[in-house]
């Protein structure tokens, strides 16, 4: 009797299981994320290595939320500054300072006994 071949093979042509490919993580991405957690949350590398994966993933999600909120707040402040015309106020203040300083003369000091 000849055995029928299944279409679903447990290993690909290069000898790697397709299931294994589902659990691979890009090393550069992982190290970038690990560095970001160390930098922003001030954790030591040994503390990060001890974290269970689900806690590590939770920290990554929280860090992403914090950084997104911070970026949104900075963008909002930048847009508000642009809309309020603060740049023209700065120019006016600089012109006033230059007008006031144009008539300024340093004081003359006379030394006693000369």
Task: Describe the model.
The structure is a single chain. Helix content is 64%, strand content 0%. The protein has 114 residues and is an all-alpha fold. The chain has a domain of 41 residues. It is elongated. The termini are far apart.
What key phrases describe this protein's structure?
mainly alpha; elongated; 114 residues
Low-pLDDT ranges: none
* Helix-strand string: HHHHH
Described by the principal axes of the CA atoms, the overall outline is elongated
> What structural class do you assign from the helix and strand content?
mainly alpha
| Count of helix runs | 5
Radius of gyration: 32 Å
Arithmetic mean of pLDDT: 76
State the helical fraction. Answer: 55-70%
Q: What can be said about the biggest beta sheet?
A: none
DSSP strand tally: 0
Q: How large a portion of the residues is in β-strands, by DSSP E?
A: under 5%
Terminus-to-terminus distance: 127 Å
Short description:
This protein is an all-alpha fold and 114 residues long.
Describe the secondary-structure layout:
Layout: H1 18-21, H2 27-41, H3 45-50, H4 53-84, H5 86-101
């Amino acid at each position: 009797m000849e055995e029928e071949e299944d279409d679903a093979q447990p290993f690909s042509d290069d000898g790697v299981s397709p299931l294994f490919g589902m659990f691979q993580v890009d090393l550069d991405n992982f190290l970038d994320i690990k560095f970001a957690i160390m930098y922003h949350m001030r954790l030591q590398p040994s503390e990060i290595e001890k974290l269970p994966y689900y806690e590590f993933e939770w920290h990554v999600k929280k860090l992403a939320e914090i950084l997104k909120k911070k970026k949104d707040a900075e963008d909002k402040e930048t847009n508000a500054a642009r809309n309020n015309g603060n740049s023209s106020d700065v120019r006016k203040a600089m012109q006033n300072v230059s007008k006031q300083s144009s008539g300024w003369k340093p004081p003359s000091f006379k030394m006693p006994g000369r």
